[in-house]
Design a protein that fits this description.
With 331 residues, this protein is mostly beta strands. Helices cover 1% and strands 36% of the residues. It has 1 helix and 28 strands. The two termini are 30 Å apart. About 6% of the residues have low confidence.
């Protein structure tokens, strides 16, 4: 079995993998493929214990939790791809921001308060139509079910209606989270016929690029819908990556790299649009979400890259490694 386009996050030494597609490859006794490959969906939340050493051939600890309907929920959690799984907080500290109440809003000061959040959060994504005859396939949900939480202790699901702020379910956007501030970010992305019941009438080839960055406050499950016009103009981005770096500036920065861009009026998926060059990256000042700059989309800056610059790409992996003295970070 092979999987792809899934959502994943590590919390408390446990890896959680949700959604995405799976390819089931029949293997004979000699380890060779025998028969046709069946493509379907991962309908389970996969849990892998990383707290102990393991070997994938002998003693790896994997659990597959079904997503059954619950009496208190009107529907089961969705099976999606190209969304995000957010860590949120592990009970350490979060910023409590006080804003001065003058005629112009400015950042006041930040106090650290503990937040114990036992959940991971499923945000956005699209329902894949790769095999609608696959057992258990279910179509997209209404837009009121954009965000879900999963309690890692009780294994209970819950959902949150953010449709007043985010009237769509974005997929394929770049995402990151500031865990020390209990906030998550999802930049641009697209909607298609798997985004919600409201978009099912779109043709399979239609992808409508989105022009906003969604900022989620997990301390109260609210969201802000922030313009990215200053960053992307009329060419929103998809399939790139973002990484949060703490300790730089008042509240850290987010680095955006790679992906593709396309004019918002072009809804066809026949072209990727234009690949984003890797000779520069875009940097978001997280402190700008706490003052008046957020009303104009926050503070974005462009930074040139040097050295052996990689070629443009989409759907790549991006991780952050900090120096031991935290003086630098490598991605």
């Amino acid at each position: 079995m092979e999987s792809g386009l899934h959502l994943a996050v590590v919390k408390n030494s446990t890896l959680y993998i949700d959604g995405g597609k799976e390819s089931f490859i029949p293997i004979n006794s000699e380890g060779k493929q025998e028969g046709d490959v069946i493509v379907g969906l991962n309908e389970y939340l996969i849990i892998v214990d990383l707290s102990q050493p393991w070997d994938w051939e002998t003693n790896v600890s994997i659990k597959a939790l079904a997503k059954p309907g619950m009496p208190e929920l009107p529907t089961s959690p969705p099976v999606v791809s190209r969304g995000a799984l957010y860590y949120a907080s592990d009970g350490k500290f979060n910023f409590n921001i006080e804003i001065d109440t003058g005629s112009v809003c400015r950042l006041g000061h930040a106090d650290l308060i503990p937040i114990d959040d036992p959940n991971i959060y499923l945000w956005g994504g699209t329902t894949p139509y790769i095999n609608t005859s696959f057992p258990g396939f279910s179509g997209p949900l209404p837009i009121t079910f954009t965000m879900w939480s999963f309690n890692i202790h009780t294994h209970e699901w819950n959902h949150y209606d953010l449709s007043d702020t985010v009237p769509y379910r974005p997929a394929a956007g770049a995402y990151a989270e500031a865990r020390d501030q209990h906030r998550s970010f999802f930049l641009n992305g697209w909607i298609d016929n798997g985004s919600s019941t409201q978009t099912m009438s779109l043709s399979p080839s239609t992808k409508i690029f989105q022009e906003a960055m969604i900022i989620i406050d997990h301390s109260n499950q609210t969201a802000k819908n922030v313009s990215t016009k200053a960053l992307v103009g009329d060419k929103p981005r998809t399939r790139g990556k973002m990484q949060y770096i703490s300790g730089l500036g008042a509240h850290g920065i987010i680095v955006l790299i790679g992906g593709n861009e396309k004019i918002v009026t072009d809804t066809s998926d026949q072209s990727l649009g234009d690949l984003i060059p890797m000779d520069s990256v875009d940097v978001f000042d997280v402190s700008s979400i706490y003052d008046d700059r957020i009303f104009s989309g926050g503070a974005w800056y462009k930074q040139k890259t040097t050295g052996d610059i990689p070629v443009s790409r989409v759907d790549f992996c991006l991780i952050l490694v900090r120096a031991a003295d935290t003086s630098s970070a490598n991605m």
